[in-house]
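Marked as duplicate of an earlier ticket. Keeping the data here for the record.
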Amino acid sequence: MLDGEIVVVGLQGLDFDALQQRIHPAASRIERLARETPASFVAFDLIALDGKDLSSLPQQERRLLLQALLFDAALPIHLSPMTTSHALALEWLRSFEGASLDGVVAKAADGPYRQASARC
């Protein structure tokens, strides 16, 4: 079980509107939009593997397992970038702000999995 996000990348960066268009009951429209605006999955965390709950493991251990799991994953599956550098995380925010990046996920390296909470 992975924690991640489904994204559609457009000319201006991440395109949430195009992603929302993919939610449709007609199979023919879903197939057409899948060709015209392909989606990708970006994995952030590994919560369970082979039926074993990993949520209590420290994030750094879950990240290593996630990296091993996705080592040779085929597109459109991606592993999110990760850093322990505050300066690099700020640079990512600055450089990707125009691409509709909403933010970064911050996790304690020695902490268990915690579900993100939405904040307005």
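See parent ticket for discussion. Helices lie at 16-21, 27-36, 59-69, 86-96.
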